[in-house]
Each structure stands twice: as C-alpha cells, then as structure tokens.
Amino acid sequence: MKTEFNYSFPPRREIRKPLKKKIYIPIITKFWTSHIIAFLWMAFSIYVSIPWLDDLSEIVTFPIALFIITGISYVPGYLNAFLVISLFFDKQPPFKNEHPNEKVSVLIAARNEEEVIARTLRYISKQDYSGPIEVFVIDNASTDKTFTIAANAGIMFNLDVRVIKEEVPGKFNALNTALKSVTTNYVITLDADTILHQSAIRLLVARITSSPANICAVAGSVLVRNSRGNLLARIQEWDYFLGIASIKRLQGLYQGTLVAQGAFSIYDTQRIKDMGGWPDAIGEDIVLTWNLLKKGWKVYFEPLAVAFTDVPDTLTHFAKQRSRWARGMIEALKQTKPWEQPEPYIKYLTGINLIMPYLDIVYTFCWLPGLILSFFGYYWIVGLTTLLVLPLTLISYGFLYYYQKNVFKRLELRIRKNILGFFVFVCFYQMLMSPISTWGYIQEAFKLKRVWK
C-alpha cells in the first residue's frame, strides 16, 4: 500500500482546539518523572539480562561484556523510555495570534537546483500569510540555469524575489551573503527542494511571535515529499514522520530544540547577526543552534508548520547526507560543550549526543556481527534483553503516530498506509544508520573533505 500526502490545500481557516481546563504540570516535574520511569525500565532490563551478561563475560570478560550490552540494550532502553514518557506529557501552547502580518524574509541557498527551484517558489507564492514576503535565492556557484530560472519564476508567480550570486561554495557562505541584505525582524531558511504547506509560513511566524521574548528560533516540521519512490524513500518517510519529529517534540518540551534545521526554520534576524551569521561548518544549522542556546536563548518546534522535502533515493546519496549529519553533530560538540550550556535541560539534551558515537560504534561492530552469529545458533550478543527495546520503540511510535495523525487532520492532509516502509523502518533502519553515522565520525576525526551534497 502506498503513503500519500494530499497537497490540495483548503481555504484558510482558524486552527483551534476546543478550550479545556488543563492541569499544569511544571517542566521539572515532567523531566524527573520521565527519568524515574526510564531508570526503572533500565533496572528491569539489567535484572533480566544477568544470565546473558554472565554468558558473554565467559567469552570476552565482564568489563567488555558490560560495555557491549550497555551500548546495545541498557542505554537505548533508557532513552526510549524517557522519550515515551516525555511525549505523553507534551502539549503545544496555543497561539496568541494565528494571523501575524509583519514582513518576513526567506533565504534559499541553491546550488544547481534548476529542476526544483521554480516549484519551491510557486509554493511560496501560494502561502496564506497576509504579511509581505521577500525571497532571497542565493545561487551558490551553480553551473546550470538556477539563477535565470529563479529570476523568471519570481516574475511568473508575482513574488518579491531577489536572486544573488555567491561564487564561494558552501551553504553558510550563501546564507551569510543574503543575511547582509535582510532588514526584517524574522528570517526563514528553506532548502531549494522543499515545498511548503499553504499555512507553513503563517504558523511558523505565529509560533515565534506568540513565544516569550527569549525564543530566538523555531524549527518547522519537515516531512518527506517523494515518498512514492523506492523502498529507501518509503523508509525515510517514517523516519521523518515519527523518528525525527518525536525527537524534536521531546527537545521542544524541555525548551531546547537542538537543531533549527536549515531546511525550514525561522530565526530572530538580530540574534543571527549578533552571532556573526551561520558558522563555517558542514552542519552549520546544528552549530548555530547550539551557539544560540549557549547564549541563553531558547529554540522551539512547531509541528503544524509543515514542509515537504525530497529525501535521497539512492544509498550513496543517503550515506552522504546522514554521515554529514553525524559529522555536524561532532562539530557542534567540539565547538560548544554540553557543560557550557547555561540551562540544565539543555546540558542534558546536548549531553546525550556525547554517547551517540558510543552507541553507533557498539551497534556497528558488536550488534551487527552478533546478529549474524545468531543465525548460526550463537546468541552471545543478540539476546533476550535486546528485544526489550522493541516494545518501547513501538509504543513511542504509536504515541507519535496518533499525535501526527491529528496534526494532519487539522491541516486537512492525509497519510497513506506505507506498511512495508514502516516494517523495514522499525526492524532494519538502524542497521543502515549506525554504520553510516560511524563513517561520519571517522570523516570528522580525520578531517576528510567536506561534501555539501
């Protein structure tokens, strides 16, 4: 069965929920309640894994056995449990003004995007945002007709489009070049292959203008456009729809969305200029967000502001993208240490990234070989406790699916039932992700050449 997003957008209408009397639970209570339950789950995992730990210790010694099992079972189980309970507590605050009208700027860094740039601009022209929108398309050393097509599309769709040449390769260079010309209070970054739901800009601006003064950025919700493609694209549909969205909801709950992704996010322009623009990094959006958090600013996530992007449909392209993301995380950790963050929740959220290389490396070099050995009857590494991670994963995805389904209903979009993609995503996706992420860590360790695409 195929999954399909319906892009026939209805007339603008208020997106409101019926007023209900709510019980306020402080964030610190949510934080520690989630931790207590997560630790209890991990304690249960440790208890039932004692025979497995003893058996593996006889083969590789106790310290090595504990190192392996902690990385493939205890810590993932704890993180999944923390995610599940946190999602249960998550509630988005209402908008103060759902129809803002102040002028905003949109920056689109484009390198050889002649096939998609006109489509992206057309969807911007269909926005139900009542305020002025100025668009900067930065042609970043393209060798095709990106510049001409973008300029003509602006005229065709009656958009305020300014096309700028930036011959020095690098997305951060392109964005910083355009930033010099931005005079609006808020600036939105959008990938050249990303299209917007008709209310995306309105709701993104509504969230940041409805937020406290210390909110400097809001990440939009990025989903998969080309999900009718091959199996790889169909798997990624669930990663964006469930996996990435759930992490952003968790981070947003604790007031620290860790990546205001360049694909679709809004920023306070002055805050970005105060930071000196986007940094020279392969994960420029990650490093920028962490630096903003380090200054005491906060970042939110708005699930109703939806954009659809094209994901890689070849393994080579996918590996380049995800290894670049992993490398960007390491860059951010090197530039902004978790213990340097002023907020305790942000210390914790960024600190989790310190153990991600450990989890990916153990999964790649221990769990995957252990899985192969299990087919030959050797259950030294892949044991019963590893299966305890699966129920929590399914529960967390169940929570998020229910939430996302309601989000889509409010936006009058529909989700197709991509059953095969979901099965492969749950059972096999990590087998792709961990080795690719490990390769990204190696690239950063040896300072290999950066690749934008």
From TrEMBL:
<feature type="transmembrane region" description="Helical">
    <location>
        <begin position="23"/>
        <end position="44"/>
    </location>
</feature>
<dbReference type="InterPro" id="IPR029044">
    <property type="entry name" value="Nucleotide-diphossugar_trans"/>
</dbReference>
<dbReference type="Pfam" id="PF13641">
    <property type="entry name" value="Glyco_tranf_2_3"/>
</dbReference>
<keyword id="KW-1133">Transmembrane helix</keyword>
<keyword id="KW-0472">Membrane</keyword>
<keyword id="KW-0808">Transferase</keyword>
<keyword id="KW-0328">Glycosyltransferase</keyword>
<feature type="transmembrane region" description="Helical">
    <location>
        <begin position="378"/>
        <end position="400"/>
    </location>
</feature>
<feature type="transmembrane region" description="Helical">
    <location>
        <begin position="354"/>
        <end position="372"/>
    </location>
</feature>
<feature type="transmembrane region" description="Helical">
    <location>
        <begin position="420"/>
        <end position="442"/>
    </location>
</feature>
<comment type="similarity">
    <text>Belongs to the glycosyltransferase 2 family.</text>
</comment>
<keyword id="KW-0812">Transmembrane</keyword>
<dbReference type="GO" id="GO:0016757">
    <property type="term" value="F:glycosyltransferase activity"/>
</dbReference>
<feature type="transmembrane region" description="Helical">
    <location>
        <begin position="64"/>
        <end position="89"/>
    </location>
</feature>
<protein>
    <submittedName>
        <fullName>Glycosyl transferase</fullName>
    </submittedName>
</protein>
